[in-house]
Amino acid sequence: MIRAGDPRLIALLALGILLALVLAVTLGETPFDAAQYAAGLTQWHSDEAVVLWQIRAPRAVCAVVVGAALGLAGAVLQGLLRNPLADPGVLGVSATAALAAAGAIVLGLAAVPGAVEVSALLGAGLAALLLLAVARRLTSPEGLILFGVALSSLAGALTALIFNLSPSPIAQAEVMSWLLGSVQNRSWIDVGWVTPPVLVAGALAFAASGGLRMLSLGEEAAATSGLAMGRMKMLALIAAAVAAGAAVAVAGVIGFVGLAAPHLVRAAVRGDPARLLLPSALAGGLMLVLADLMARVIPTDQELKLGVFTALVGAPLFALIAWRAAREWRS
Q1: How far is Cα 74 from Cα 276, in angstroms, rounded to an integer?
Q2: Which of 57, 75, 191, 210 could be cross-linked to 262 through a Cys-Cys bond (beta carbons 3.0 to 4.6 Å apart)?
Q3: pTM, 2 dp
């Protein structure tokens, strides 16, 4: 049995990601025979090698990194707010990042390399600053969640307004594709772009991990133990914003991964917020690469967008988590 702190949990998740990457690279809409796989592995300039290593492989790795970012952000926010329903989407971080990215697209900045990605990060950073300002005035996590829900609704409405008023059908199509979420056609350049912010977010999250563990005992107990609450909240919110902003910047809006990933591993770490961070990131990466593989190989006339697929699977899971949380609160 895997217990809290057992390295076998990390090893199991890492092995699952490795196997999922192998499947994602070898499987596709167009099946290869043995000779084509051999050509892809030995003839680096062949068409088969291009498909395997320049199309499928970066897409799969990008899905892992984006999923890890969302899983990490969800674990940080659930630990900070001591609420199992918290995730970047609920607090408005993802919606604000998407708003900034949509604005950049409509303004014609998509032609500038990195402009949309930087805009998404700036939008997520703005959301973090607003949440941090509210957190300093509100002592209850419920108040911060309600503010986050309002921020998410406002950002979603403004994004819809931008979409509605955009004079360019091409810009509208790009915004819509962004809002649906996808890692389709991502390259190694995208992988190289998204990885550093996620690593920075991971470092900030682990710097706040000790405070998250003390906070699980309650704010009063954490304060009496000498925890610098303001510094810990700042580190946690910035970590979640950077991770979620990087994910949105590369893949658009993908929901429910940040919510579900921590729940998949919480029992194995016995609810310890500090030990939950790395397993949640790995679980998120595993979830998203498998979801992208399923969205890619399901026989449909048009490939399912990754955000649509995760929403179809995640919405019932969210309802189940909410129902269980309500039962726990009543008891």
Answers
A1: 10
A2: 75
A3: 0.90
Contact 69, 82 (CB under 8 A): no
Q: Token pair of 2, please?
A: 């895997």
- Distance from CA of residue 318 to its chain's centroid? 15
57-81 and 188-207 helices, crossing angle to 10°: 20
How remote is the C-alpha of 220 from its chain's centroid? Answer: 31
Q: Which helix (H) or strand (E) holds 197?
A: helix 188-207
The answer to whether 249 and 192 are in contact (CB under 8 A) is no
Show the tokens assigned to 311: 């929403």
Q: What is the C-alpha to C-alpha distance for residues 222 and 219, in angstroms, rounded to an integer? A: 5
The tens-digit pLDDT sequence of the chain (331 residues) is 344 446 888 999 999 999 999 999 998 777 787 888 788 778 878 888 888 899 999 999 999 999 999 999 999 999 988 888 788 888 888 899 999 999 998 888 878 888 888 898 899 889 988 988 887 787 677 788 888 889 999 999 999 998 888 888 888 888 888 888 899 889 999 999 999 999 999 999 999 988 888 887 766 666 666 667 778 888 998 999 899 999 998 999 898 899 889 988 988 888 788 899 999 999 999 999 999 999 888 877 787 888 888 888 877 877 777 677 666 655 5
Give percent helix, percent strand, percent coil of the chain, each to the nearest 5.
80, 0, 20
The Cα 331–Cα 108 span in angstroms is 53
Angle between helices 257-265 and 273-297 (to 10 degrees): 120
